[in-house]
Design goal:
Elements (H helix, E strand, L loop, with lengths): L4 H6 L11 H123 L1 H8 L6 E3 L6 E3 L2
Antiparallel strand pairs: 1-2
Main location: cytoplasm
Family: Belongs to the DivIVA family.
Keywords: Cell cycle, Cell division, Coiled coil, Cytoplasm
Length: about 170
């Protein structure tokens, strides 16, 4: 067990003939006591500083551990968010493809209907054209008939002529 300043102070030496000078020994012991007390105080201060430093170190180690855990949790969360975003993006793309296919199919169906309508309109136009052509040709035949020629030849006097085709009497003015 180490010496204490009190042990040094209470230490008594046996006296011999022509021994050491008692005042010198006492002064030296007093100096040793002061130095020893100072060392003990310094040791206690250093121990307190070490204890305080160890507590701070422990506190900062805890903070470091907490930060590391927080970083790991943040990384895991970021990874989850990233994976969820990828899944959602895939779902959006799939839905967009479905919608695109539906729109394309609708457009194709409308295109088929329009094509059918166009063909029907072309047929109707051809029928109308044929009928109109036949009507015009019939009217031209009427204009080329002898009845019209006779009307054009005698415009000054009235005459009645019998229409041989339908049995109608016409009066000319």
């Amino acid at each position: 067990m180490p010496l204490t300043p009190l042990d040094i102070h209470n230490k008594e030496f046996s006296r011999g003939f022509r021994g050491y000078d008692e005042d010198e020994v006492n002064d030296f012991l007093d100096q040793i006591i002061k130095d020893y007390e100072a060392l003990i105080r310094e040791k206690k201060d250093l121990e307190q500083k070490v204890k305080s430093s160890e507590e701070k170190l422990s506190h900062f180690s805890n903070i470091e551990t907490t930060l590391n855990k927080s970083i790991l949790v943040a990384q895991e969360t970021a990874e989850e968010v990233k994976q969820n975003a990828k899944k959602e993006a895939k779902l959006i793309v799939m839905e967009a493809k479905k919608n695109a296919d539906r729109i394309i199919n609708e457009a194709l169906e409308k295109s088929r209907k329009v094509t059918i309508n166009i063909e029907e309109l072309k047929k109707e136009a051809n029928v109308y054209r044929t009928r109109f052509q036949m009507l015009i040709e019939a009217q031209l035949e009427l204009l080329k008939s002898e009845d019209w020629k006779n009307l054009a030849a005698s415009p000054d006097h009235e005459s009645e002529t019998a229409d041989q085709d339908n049995g109608v009497i016409k009066t000319q003015a």
